[in-house]
Model the fold of this input.
Amino acid sequence: MAENTLQKIHEIAVAEFLEKGFRGASLREIVKKAGVTTGAFYGYYKSKEELFDALVQPHAEYIRNCFDKCINAFLSVPKSEWSKHMSDFSENGMAEMFEYAFEHKDSFRLILNASEGTKWENYIHDLVETEIDITHKYYDVMREQGFKTHSLPPMLEHMIISGEFTGLFEVIIHDIPKEEAMLCVKELHDFYEGAWAKLMGLE
Amino acid sequence: MAENTLQKIHEIAVAEFLEKGFRGASLREIVKKAGVTTGAFYGYYKSKEELFDALVQPHAEYIRNCFDKCINAFLSVPKSEWSKHMSDFSENGMAEMFEYAFEHKDSFRLILNASEGTKWENYIHDLVETEIDITHKYYDVMREQGFKTHSLPPMLEHMIISGEFTGLFEVIIHDIPKEEAMLCVKELHDFYEGAWAKLMGLE
Amino acid sequence: MAENTLQKIHEIAVAEFLEKGFRGASLREIVKKAGVTTGAFYGYYKSKEELFDALVQPHAEYIRNCFDKCINAFLSVPKSEWSKHMSDFSENGMAEMFEYAFEHKDSFRLILNASEGTKWENYIHDLVETEIDITHKYYDVMREQGFKTHSLPPMLEHMIISGEFTGLFEVIIHDIPKEEAMLCVKELHDFYEGAWAKLMGLE
Amino acid sequence: MAENTLQKIHEIAVAEFLEKGFRGASLREIVKKAGVTTGAFYGYYKSKEELFDALVQPHAEYIRNCFDKCINAFLSVPKSEWSKHMSDFSENGMAEMFEYAFEHKDSFRLILNASEGTKWENYIHDLVETEIDITHKYYDVMREQGFKTHSLPPMLEHMIISGEFTGLFEVIIHDIPKEEAMLCVKELHDFYEGAWAKLMGLE
DNA sequence: GATGAATGAGCCTTCATTCAT
DNA sequence: TATGAATGAAGGCTCATTCAT
Done:
């Protein structure tokens, strides 16, 4: 039954955390709904936070890794070829991240909607910050390469990229079939890519 | 003194709610930091939630109203002229909303970052839904009018508009001078307007 | 009623701690027996340990101070006069300490019999260590002054002085009238003074 | 393995009880550190208290017996010869007790320092009471025999004898080589014997 | 003998809220 | 208006112990 107890706890915990957030969810309620006792729970985890981590950590780390690897791969491309590869890297990276996130929707929803009060509360924000940095750097390099591009107020970069990520993750938050989801992600990417190009004056 | 007591409570409450969220903030901590007693507090409000409401409600409603009025005004324009006025309505609407939100930053931040567990937790989401509806309707009408526009998956609309609003509100969340803020808002608007046009195949 | 609540809590707490020790006593039991609620308790103290401290600290510190002052006073006497004054200092010191402890019996009993698990668990032991040090030093000085005294194994000093203190505090632990108590303390002192003198070969 | 399991449990249990006391020690911690399971433990003992008893009882009883036998032997000596044999009985008794206790130090330390909350918490106190009784009786008999001895307040007897036992057991609590220990015990005995004689005015 | 998941009472503590003053 | 002591439910967590395997 061990397997079962843990599964049941996870199942209920995800539901409760999603409904009430980490702080709002009650451990006692979780175990009651899971049909076990507090003691049983504490045989598996040392604390409520550890339970949340168990649900979130592996996937959060996978995505963060995947994101970082993608960026590092791009950074190791000679700068003279950046403009040629940017689009592919960005699209592939987003698609890969998205694909994984889609397969682990619930974990991602926990990060997105229920992580206040945990160490994951800034996770998305941190991803965004990284994306802002790389974007900023990209256009700096473009200029070094002789392209004529505008220079944006940092806040505007922040606004656009925050929005892009928010949009991307909406597809995780809501339940839609994978094919439709992937199509939307692809189109969202094109939407932003085109808009960036125009905004920056890169034809 | 009454005025003063209430002011102090508001001031501290805003800070506490922003720091810890509605659920995480402790009423007793708030009144203690405000230098008053629980008894005094409950002379003004019936509950913690009512305090939160007091801080948020007037401004939330104002914006909601402003948003709805703007949309209704647009809806009352003859459909044949929609394409001509859309951009202005949208830009002016956004600017007006933003201007007000900027003047009442803290209330807005409460909605954006601290409203989990209150009746405002879906406020932004609801705004977005409305914007999605009107946007959707707009392109329907365009097609009725003979324009050739693509038809988007509803989720894609949702993603883009969520992102746009998120981006817009980032400027409220972070502290930047008003002029810079307004410029960013204007540019964000242009960014999305252009991108929409391109996405829909309108020109 | 505030005064009363606190008094009642103190009263019951002393009894419970004495009966079951700090660890064995239950806060819930204390407040229940005191006829109040846990919430009421936590209006006065931040924790069970803080309650224990409140009952113990002031008196523990007073005695510790009194003890240290007495020793320092002796140390500031010219060494050549130590042998002359030792007995008085020691007797007066013990009497003073004892008198105070007697007036705050319950606090002392808490230290003696119920402090396991609190920061006071080594209090008596520390007093004894100090007394051992000064005693040791005293006989060193005696030898410097030309007195012929034996040299004791450190453990024997430890044994005797531990015993002396234990004996002294027995009078606090048990309920006897003050006059009888003081007489016993005086006689205990003489008992040890004589025995020390004989043991050290002084006289 | 059984033997081994039990041995390991005992070993760890002693350490844990000594470190944290009976109440403060956690059974689960003990079995975990011993590398076994709770189930295995409950195959040997019915409860945490029974474990403590197993560690303490045999030695506690041995000593208690030895003490009682020694006293009874003395009591069966004709009263007219008490004064002649007292010293030997007392010294031999103490030495024998001590020798045994020294060989089973840890069990004794459990009684002395970790027995709060168990049925052994008054063990030492009871020994002392018995010693007080016999001492008291001894001096009564001395007076019957025509010796001139003072009469002590019962509390003073209690104080002195408590102290003596405390001192004696210090040598068990601390780790010192047996030879040194035995010497200290012998000297402690002389210390108290002499002091008693003087206190009672018996020469 | 041994496992270890499960029990459930109990622990200390915090909370929003009430109410006599 | 304001006080602040008091309420009592609820929180997360630990414990000695049981029992099906």
Remarks:
- The first helix of chain A runs from residue 2 to 24.
- The domain at 1-44 of chain A is CATH 1.10.10.60 (Arc Repressor Mutant, subunit A).
- Residues 1-2, 5, 36-40, 43-44 of chain A lie near DNA strand E (CB under 10 Å from a C1').
